[in-house]
Amino acid sequence: MMSARAVLPALAALLSTTIAVPAMAANSTQPAIPGTYAVLRGAVQFQSATTLPDNAVMTVTLVDITTPGNPVPLVRTDFPALNAASLVFDLPYDPASIKPAHSYGVSARITADDRILLDSGDPQPVLAGGTDHPVVWVHGVATDAGSASDGVTGVWQLSVLNGEAVGAGTAITLGADGAVSGSTGCNRVMGKAAITGDSVRFGPLMTTRMACAPAAMKREQAFLTAMDATRFWRVNGPELVLSDATRRPVLIFRKS
């Protein structure tokens, strides 16, 4: 089993290299054939603070995603899932199996005792048409869509916008029927949210049209843009984390 370690600050240094290995690891789906293999190096990051059990396992899979809705796994390797903000992985694969006209992606899943704890969802594009050093976000898996969506309802005060802390003034109320209302810190906002499992789409959102100070107007625009980009949600204790299609958190609220 290959080891994982916390991601170093310079994620840009992650490279796709080529190494010679006598055989693939026993827990890999790649045939154990001696030869030269490429290594896809990337990182798995948690959407929010998560404590994993000691026996948690992270499985990283390289898949052919050429045919929509029918991903074909090429190679899969297990790593110990350590309690860290990020985990680096080195995923060996046979370059001869990569076809120029095909599309590829990498996905990650963390399990323990045959239970799925965290999952990346749709594969992150890699290699041709994607990156050679992917950052894959994993998020909690809802076991019951109805009860899961109940956890997102209530009044939420915005605390972090695009990675930066913000002051009081921006808040939303999410109703059990999907109704959205609140304040951008300048104007009133209202609309609907469509929630399915851990997926969410907001819109169209409507606002009043008051003029405010330039700083407030700038934050309002950034807030509305982030809401429009939101695709996933997760409640972590008192926090509601909204993330974009790449699982990157764009908005963090605190329960009011």
From TrEMBL:
Domain of life: Bacteria
InterPro entries with a match to the protein in the record: DUF306_Meta_HslJ (IPR005184), HslJ-like_sf (IPR038670), Hsp_HslJ-like (IPR053147), Pilotin (IPR039366)
Residues in coiled coil: none
Signal peptide: 1-25
Keyword Signal among record annotations: yes
Keyword field: Signal
Pfam families: META, YscW
Residue ranges of domain DUF306 in the record: 154-254
Identification of the protein by name: META domain-containing protein
